[in-house]
Structures are given as structure tokens and as C-alpha cells.
Design goal:
The chain has about 120 residues and is mainly alpha-helical. It has 4 helices and no strands.
């Protein structure tokens, strides 16, 4: 039943790309297993990632060429940092490493989305 609720939530939120998004880790505290926590974090990260990409595209279309190139470079470096940083957490021992890596991805992706939104 919880998976149907999560799917319904994702579908509702996807109808309006910049609708109010869930706060990082919201609802994941209700998960009953590590697998459910990891899936919840992945779902929320996907929502924030979509929000980040939409904001990035909006910024890219509104900036002069010089600033577009700087944003593109910064975003590429940010992605490299995020992936390397969260890979560190994923390399830990046990199932908690999967949760920590998921939390890392969610935390950094939501923060970057909000950072770019503040610039629009």
C-alpha cells in the first residue's frame, strides 16, 4: 500500500514541475526497512533532480553567453563533487552505507536546486 502512495505522490508532483516539493527526507522516516528507506530517498532525490534540471535549463536560457559558460562549468564540477562525495558514503560497511549514500544524494541535490532557484 505504501508503494502505491509513493507512486501517486510522484505522479501528482510531476504534474507541476516546480510545485511545492517535499523537504529532504520527508516521509522517509515512516519506512519499515532499509530497502524502503533507500527507495524513498531515491524517489525524493529524483524529484529534486528534476527540479534542479528545470531550474538549470531556465537559468541557462536567461543568462548571457559568458555567464552560461561559467554556470555550465560550475554545474559539471558540482556533479563530479556530488557523485564523488556520495560514493564515499556508499563505500561504508553494511546496509547503513546505502542509507547514508541516499541521504547524501538527496541533501546535496536539494541544496543545489534551492541555490540555483535563488538565482532565478
Amino acid at each position: 500500500m505504501k508503494s502505491l502512495t509513493v507512486i501517486a505522490l510522484v505522479l501528482i508532483l510531476s504534474a507541476s514541475p516546480l510545485a511545492a516539493e517535499p523537504a529532504p527526507e520527508e516521509n522517509c522516516n515512516d519506512a519499515n526497512s532499509t530497502a524502503e528507506i533507500v527507495q524513498c530517498l531515491a524517489t525524493q532525490t529524483a524529484i529534486w533532480d528534476r527540479r534542479l534540471n528545470l531550474t538549470y535549463q531556465k537559468l541557462m536560457s536567461s543568462l548571457p553567453a559568458r555567464r552560461r559558460e561559467r554556470l555550465r562549468n560550475a554545474q559539471r564540477l558540482w556533479v563530479q563533487f556530488r557523485d564523488a562525495n556520495c560514493a564515499y558514503f556508499a563505500s561504508g560497511e553494511g546496509s547503513i552505507a546505502r542509507v547514508e549514500a541516499g541521504q547524501c544524494l538527496l541533501r546535496l541535490t536539494s541544496a543545489r536546486a534551492q541555490e540555483l532557484e535563488a538565482d532565478t
